[in-house]
Structures are given as structure tokens and as C-alpha cells.
Amino acid sequence: MTADPLQLALDKLAEDGAAEPVRAAFARRFAQLQDPDAGLLAGDALEPVDDVPALDDLEGQGGDPTAILPRLAVIKLNGGLGTSMGLRGPKSLIDVKPGITFLDAIARQVLALRQAAPTTAPVPLVLLDSFSTRADTLRALADRHPDLAAPPIPADFLQSREPKLDAETHAPIAWPRHPDLEWCPPGHGDVYVSLAASGMLATLLDHGIDWAFISNSDNLGATVDPRIPAYADAHGIPFVMEVVRGTPADRKGGHIARRRDDGRLVLRETAQTPPGDDSFTDVERWRFYNTNNLWVDLRALRATLDADPAGPALPLIVNRKTVDPRDPASPAVLQLETAMGAALGAIDGAQAVLVPRTRFAPVKTTDDLLVVRSDAYAIGDDGRVTPTFDGPPPVVSLAAKFYKSLPDMEARFPAGPPSLRAARSFAVTKDTTFGADVRIIGDVSVTSGGIVPDGETLHA
Predict the structure, then answer these.
(1) Which of 345, 356, 326 minimizes the C-alpha distance to 262?
(2) Which residues in the chain show pLDDT less than 50?
């Protein structure tokens, strides 16, 4: 066996049963790793995007929007566990309202969409699962939403996995005590290659599905608006990214820009910013921020994969960790990743569309979850999440020491979340337990700890 680190990794992938597109995509990322500046986008090499078309501007520019529904699939990224909230199961099975999980809300959205179609349209829901989420999620779908199946299109396909690399030698790491920790997901940019490698892309196209709406399962604002694919289809646009107007809360999120040398749209993430470049957080300069709500012409994607099995040439993101993320003394490793939104800069003719903030409400932390669970949002029978507040959404900041894990947070809100519909911000810095029917009005900071009694109203 050769000592070449790339070949060692490719051999390990082959032994794991990885298909050609998966191996080709890894080989590309490995080649990018050899250039220390690979994927970096300096602020002075970019120009801000002055304007993008707004969602409402698309009205009437693509014919009857509902006519595209029989050609559309909904793909939800469902590979994440609730580890950031102290859980071990799929994040999509966390309750967002009593008895309603993320997955339940998504299922309601898709079923309502089918009923709204002018003709019988399958509108399949397809999950991009990981090895960690697949069994539990498919069991929940079968038990709770048997009417959601859209045979012969499978309910899911698997995200690929790749070897973690020794940080010094770049060879695949060996960790015999926990062999599963030798592997990692390659980021959600893997969705394009996994569609092909799993056979899902061919299955969808063979059954007349040539558009996909791809979004995160933790963003319940990401519902199908058929005006976008209808517009893109009518104008030959192969890829559309939904963006929102940036606010200070987005300063660490990925923003779009234009490269000065060729005028091409690109997505820049925090990890792609060179050291010492402080331009990234300037929300007034960059203006438009990625929602990870993406619309993809599957015919164009197949042509891209036919030309290059590695798929769209996405910039590399190097994630530096230890082989056992719970043990900082374990060997340092590199995880080679890509972001699916980066296809904006890799697919010819890709465009962005400005959408309302209501389409971008991801739940990444218990802070976010408390807001969605509160009366600041309502979930209808159609699964749509609608805000009940006026103005921007309330910003919640809970002390991580006491509230980071979901069990800890729920123990301190035993009667459920406080009323947040009239709140602008809500910060808790001490160990505090809240009673029933507590109301937060305006800007509130709780710094004393202890117990907030039932029925209390807190205001600035």
C-alpha cells in the first residue's frame, strides 16, 4: 500500500463503499488543501452587491407558478443531531410547539402544498439524512405521517462521509478505540454529489421532477414559494439563492459579493476570510446574507456532474478539530468541507433573490428555540410559521452555563416559555427559573437569579 496520504484516503473511501462522485469530490478538496490560500476571499478582492430582485418583483414573470409544482421536490437537510442542545437524537425530532416537531411542521407544509396544486402533484419530501439520523427519522415519518410517502421516490438519501485527516501528515487518522470517530461529514455542500451517488438525482429526473427546493430542516420559514422556480425556469436560471437584507445579528453569517476580477457572484463564509481581514462583519457594506434556501435545476445539475463527477467546484472550508471532539487531548484533525450555498459562485448563471426575513428563522440554539416555542410565533395546520410580533423578532440571550442544553433550559421554564410577542430583547445572565404566564415587554435583562413568580410582567 502506498504511503501517499491522498491515496490512503481514497483507498479507505473505496473500502467504505464510496461511489465515484464521492471519491472525486474528496480528491478535489484534498487538492485544494495543498494551497493554504484555497477558498479564501479577501474583502478588497470583492465588491458589494448593489441590488438583487425582490421576491414580489417576480410576480407574473414566470407564468402560472403552481404549474411547476408537479416538477418540484422538497429536499431538507436532516443530518444534524441536537448535540449543541445536549441531545443525541435527530434535531428535527425536537418539539417546536407542544406535540409538534420540526419534522411534523415540515410534513404539514408539504401535504398542504399538495392540496393547493392545480392537479395531482406528488411534491415529494426527500430528506438528506446522515448515518446518525436516518433510522429515527424514517421511523418517525412512518409512524406519524404515512400519507407523506410519494413512491417510487424514496423518502431519503444518505449524506456521504469521508476520513478525518491527521493535521500534520494529512493521512487518514486511525482511532481504534472508536473507529466511527475516524469519519466525518463533508459539510452540506455534499448534497449535490450525494444526490448523484445515491441514485436520487436519476430517480427524480426519471419521474419528471426537475426542480428542487433545498433548505435546512431547522428553518421552518423555508416553505415553497413557486414564484421562484417558475421565474428561474422561464429565464433559464439554473440556481437561485434566497437572501435577506443583513442586520447586526447576521454579521457572522455568509454574505454574497461580486469578485472584482470577473464580476461573478460569490458566497463568503467566516472561514473563508483571511486572518486580519476585518471587513467580514460589515453588514452595511455587504448587505445581502445567505438563508440556505436554494432552488436548483436538477437538469443543469446533472449536466454539471456529467462533465465533472466531483460536482460544482465549491471552495474548501477547513474545519480544525480533535479526532474525539469531546477530548481536547486527542489528536488534531482536519475535516474538509464545503457549503452548498457556495454553488452561487460555481454555477454559471446563478442568481440571488431578496426574500422577507420571515423566510429565514433558523433554530441553532436554545435561545432561538425559546423564541419559536413562545407566543412570538404561531404554527398553523398547514405547518406555516407566522410571527405575531410587530417589527424585528425578539432577540434572546440565555446564559450558556445554565441554559445551553435543552433539558437545562426546560427545567428553568417548567411551565413553558414566557410571552415574547411584545419583547425586543430578553437576556438572562444568572441561574433563574421562570413561573407560568410570565410576560416580557421591550428590552429586559434578568441579572439577579432566583425565581420569577407566576404571572409576573418584566419590562425595561
Answers:
(1) 345
(2) 1
Q: How far apart are CA 448 and CA 414, in angstroms?
A: 19
> Could you tell me the sign of the dihedral formed by the alpha carbons of 254, 258, 259, 262, in that order?
positive
Q: Rounded to 5 degrees, what are φ and ψ at 408?
A: -65, -40
One DSSP character per residue, 341-392 reads: GGGGGTSTT-EEEE--GGG--B--SHHHHHHHHSTTEEE-TT--EEE-SSSS
Both ends of the chain: CA-CA distance in Å? 68
Domain boundaries, the chain: 5-359, 366-459
Rg (CA), the chain: 22
What's residue 2's pLDDT? Answer: 53
Q: Which residue bears the cell 435543552?
A: 406
Asked if residue 237 lies in contact with residue 68, where contact means CB atoms within 8 angstroms, the answer is no
Phi-psi label, residue 449: left if phi above 0, alpha if psi -120 to 50, beta otherwise: left
**What would the DSSP string read from start to end of 206-218?**
HTT--EEEEEETT
CB 353 within 8 Å of CB 377: no
User: What's the CATH number for 366-459?
Assistant: 2.160.10.10
Give the angle 372-187-182 at the CA atoms, nearest 5°.
115
- The closest alpha carbon to 349, from 401, 312, 395, belongs to 312
Indicate the pairing of strand 211-216 with strand 288-297: antiparallel
Q: Which three cell numbers stand for residue 65?
A: 407558478
User: What is the DSSP code string of 156-202?
Assistant: EEEPP-EE-EETTT-SBP--TTSGGGGEE---GGGHHHHHHHTSHHH
Question: What confidence tens digit (pLDDT) does each residue in 235-248 have?
Answer: 999 999 999 998 87
Write the pLDDT tens digit of every residue in 92-149: 999 999 999 999 999 999 999 998 876 777 899 999 999 889 999 999 999 999 999 9
Domain 5-359 homologous superfamily, CATH: Spore Coat Polysaccharide Biosynthesis Protein SpsA; Chain A (3.90.550.10)
Question: 111: Cβ–Cβ under 8 A, 6 or more apart, which residues?
Answer: 145, 147, 148, 383
Distance between CA 45 and CA 264 in Å, rounded?
Answer: 12
Which of these, 459, 452, 422, 450, lies nearest to 437 by C-alpha position?
A: 452
pTM of the model: 0.94
Cell numbers representing residue 262 in the block: 470577473
Task: Give residue 115's pLDDT.
Answer: 87
Which secondary structure element, helix H or strand E, spans residue 53, and what is its range?
A: none
pLDDT for the residue 117: 75
Q: Which three cell numbers stand for residue 179?
A: 473507529
**Which segments of 177-331 are extended strands (E)?**
183-184, 211-216, 239-245, 255-259, 265-268, 288-297, 317-322
User: From CA 138, how far away is CA 123, in angstroms rounded?
Assistant: 18
